[in-house]
Design a protein that fits this description.
By secondary structure, the protein is of the alpha/beta class. Helix content is 47%, strand content 21%. The strands form four sheets. A five-stranded mixed sheet has the order 4-3-5-12-6, sandwiched between helices. A three-stranded antiparallel sheet has the order 10-7-11. Strands 1-2 form a two-stranded antiparallel sheet. Strand 1 and strand 2 form a beta hairpin. The longest helix is centred in the first third of the chain and has 26 residues. It is elongated.
Length: 291
């Protein structure tokens, strides 16, 4: 088992085609099949079901892909460190919109300007998806907003406290109890189901036996804010994402009988027995940037 075979395997999974993989790598299709067969023989397990005709992954392959991604990542980091004397490389980052639109993008801009020889691949998705991408080895660092992180395979770096607030138009009732009795404002405008603070709020609603008459799901925080500033419903968002609207009296915080749990923003990396100097540099700079 070597780096070349594993890179071929990963590309085959991405393309879903032996023919396409062979074209990209400038190999023959039989060469691709031979590399996969060699891997299967060494691992003593099938990687694909009827792999000469399709690329349906076996459960065994799905289970070992995080380790394969780690192996590839380590190999590439070693090459980068050796070739560019620790000053060049690439970081793959996954981050939620709530952080990207409220400060993280400014830091990334600062980092790229300060270290022009380092590249960043940025992926935007939900906190839970970002964390899974990190565990699978598809990214180097994942940013999340949550109450806490307890995964034994991850190392967490706390960045800031994150207040989660319930917000609505200035004309809305001042309390959640009254708001939910108002036909105009009893309409939750919220982001995707995997959102950690959405899950928190839905649990809060259930535990307090509240009833929400209508829910509209939107992916963009800007779209959510656009609707509620037009007197359409209410939302639950990190304070950092609505502080300007609150300051300018376009929105207000709706009072609740019980406070929401305190959330925090974290930078997560995998616990490994080797050191990535570029990743360590990134973490050091973001901590200094936030202070």
């Amino acid at each position: 088992m070597n780096y070349k075979q594993l890179k071929t395997l990963k590309l085959l999974i991405e393309t879903g085609s032996y023919t396409k993989t062979a074209e990209i790598l400038n190999y023959t299709q039989s060469n691709i099949s031979q590399q996969i067969s060699q891997l299967e023989n060494e691992l003593e397990n099938s990687l694909f079901i009827n792999h000469n005709k399709s690329v349906i992954q076996t459960d065994f392959l799905k289970n070992i892909m995080p380790l394969i991604n780690d192996y590839i990542d380590v190999h590439e980091q070693i090459i980068n460190i050796s070739k560019y004397e620790n000053s060049r490389g690439k970081i793959k980052i996954a981050a939620p919109e709530s952080l990207l639109t409220s400060g993280l993008s400014n830091f990334i801009k600062y980092f790229l300007e300060s270290y022009p020889e380092i590249d960043i691949d940025l992926f935007n998705n939900t906190c839970s998806f970002n964390q899974q991408q990190l565990l699978n080895g598809n990214v180097d660092i994942a940013f999340v907003v949550n109450e806490d992180i307890t995964n034994k395979y991850l190392q967490k770096h706390k960045l800031d406290d994150e207040q989660i607030v319930l917000v609505a138009h200035m004309d809305a009732p001042d309390t959640l109890d009254l708001l939910l009795k108002d036909n105009t404002f009893n309409h939750l405008i919220i982001n995707e189901k995997d959102s950690t603070y959405r899950q928190m709020f839905e649990k809060y609603i259930f535990n307090n036996d509240y009833h929400i008459s209508k829910t509209t799901e939107m992916w963009s925080i800007d779209s959510i804010k656009s609707l509620i500033t037009q007197r359409i419903g209410f939302s639950v968002l990190p304070f950092r994402n609505v502080k300007n609207e609150i300051k300018n009296r376009k929105l207000k915080i709706i009072k609740t009988d019980h406070p929401f749990p305190l959330f925090q923003s974290f930078a997560l990396v995998k616990k490994k027995n080797w050191t990535n100097p570029i990743l360590n540099l990134f973490l050091k700079e973001i901590k200094n940037f936030n202070n």
